[in-house]
Specification:
Layout: H1 2-15, H2 18-28, E1 33-38, H3 46-56, E2 58-59, H4 62-71, H5 74-78, E3 85-92, H6 95-108, E4 112-116, H7 118-123, H8 131-137, E5 143-146, E6 149-152, H9 156-171, H10 178-190, H11 198-201, H12 208-216, E7 220-224, H13 238-256, E8 262-264, H14 270-283, E9 288-290, E10 309-310, H15 317-325, H16 327-357
Parallel strand pairs: 1-3, 1-10, 2-3, 3-4, 4-7, 8-9
Antiparallel strand pairs: 5-6
Helix pairs in contact: 1-15, 8-9, 9-10, 13-14
């Protein structure tokens, strides 16, 4: 129901001309870089997204776009395509980036940038955040005790609660080794016995052979995303954050044969980055680092805290149009204004009431 309502709003923004107006305003108001953040490439409307975006934006490789944003002068920019710059990024390096994203990038000649997690490319195992759903789905036990709670796995709600409990423990790991050590225990308790099916294989990591093939096409570029995708702010030892960030760059540069200048923080909100994460990126001398903090970028944006707009292939192209243009933000901010005003008025009435009592 919510998805249908969002699509209706996006359609109204588009067909009313507000999306077009927002694009025009972005072009007139100066330099702007839109960076979209996808995860998966399959099972949605990526082709429609790319066709729309390439028609209305100047889609660039990430490094090329950032070079322009921070280094080119105004006179040189005026001689170029005046459309707003836009970059397509894909986090984690899933197999469907190769089977779906790569063919589309080549066919439509649209550049994309993929952020890789080399530790998973090395061993080919599932990413840690996929394990909770997989293990509970394929468990051979009917009940399990974990975290002081007993979960009856014949009940859907109990299965969901167990998935959430495992996921929370993994996300809040305070060391690099902790997630895999915990998963070893969980696998024994849940007695997993079914191998990955075709759908699950599409979500496994890329291989180095696939990475090399994509890079040779010149339509796909790569950036770093840590060695094992820990949430950097949660690591207790700052040296582990430094290792994850710097070793990732070293491994990628060894395999790719050239400098890797861009980094994307795992999960990517400010609370997930932390001071450890920011300092590690700066110490590793990345030129640019991307967050998932919502927003657009200008030449004044901190190059180690670049903003992205998180989208998904299962969203309609009208949603992508509304979000990339900024029209969606305008609408949501407009909706929040009455709520914010009511909240301020309520606080004011409370303070007045206290004053009268005094």
């Amino acid at each position: 129901m919510l998805r249908r309502l969002e699509l209706l709003i996006a359609a109204c923004l588009y067909y009313s001309g507000l999306v077009k107006l927002a694009r025009w305003w972005a072009q007139r108001s100066g330099q702007r870089l839109v960076i979209l953040c996808y995860h998966h490439a399959a099972g949605g409307h990526l082709r429609q997204h790319l066709l729309y975006l390439s028609r209305h934006y100047r889609v660039l490789h990430l490094e090329a776009a950032l070079e322009e944003l921070y280094k080119l002068g105004k006179d040189e920019l005026q001689r170029r395509d005046c459309r707003t710059r836009l970059v397509l990024t894909f986090d984690d390096g899933y197999h469907d980036h190769y089977t779906h994203g790569f063919p589309l990038a080549c066919e439509l000649q649209i550049p994309i940038t993929i952020f890789l997690v080399p530790g998973y490319l090395e061993n080919g195992s599932r990413f840690w955040w996929q394990e909770p759903d997989h293990l509970v789905l394929h468990t051979q036990v009917r009940a399990v005790r974990m975290g002081g709670c007993t979960h009856d796995l014949s009940k859907l709600e109990e299965r969901k609660a167990l998935v959430q409990a495992i996921d929370t423990r993994l996300r809040h790991a305070s060391s690099i080794a902790e997630p895999e050590e915990f998963l070893v225990t969980v696998r024994k308790v849940l007695a997993e016995s079914v191998s990955a099916n075709a759908a699950e294989k599409a979500t496994l990591p890329l291989t180095w052979a696939e990475v090399h093939e994509m890079e040779e096409s010149e339509w796909v570029s790569f950036g770093a995303h840590t060695m094992h995708h820990p949430i950097l702010a949660y690591l207790a030892d700052p040296t582990e954050a430094q290792y994850e960030v710097s070793e990732c760059r070293a491994v990628l540069e060894k395999h790719l044969g050239h400098s890797v200048r861009t980094f994307a923080y795992p999960v990517g909100k400010r609370e997930h980055i932390g001071e450890h994460g920011l300092h590690a990126v700066q110490a590793a001398k990345y030129d640019w680092a991307l967050t998932t903090i919502h927003g657009f970028n200008t030449s004044q944006t901190d190059p180690h805290l670049l903003h992205r707009i998180v989208v998904d292939v299962d969203q309609h192209w009208l949603m992508i149009a509304a979000k990339a243009s900024g029209a969606w933000d305008f609408f949501t901010d407009l909706c929040r204004m009455p709520i914010t005003l009511m909240s301020k008025q309520a606080k004011l009435r409370t303070l007045r009431g206290k004053g009268d009592q005094g």
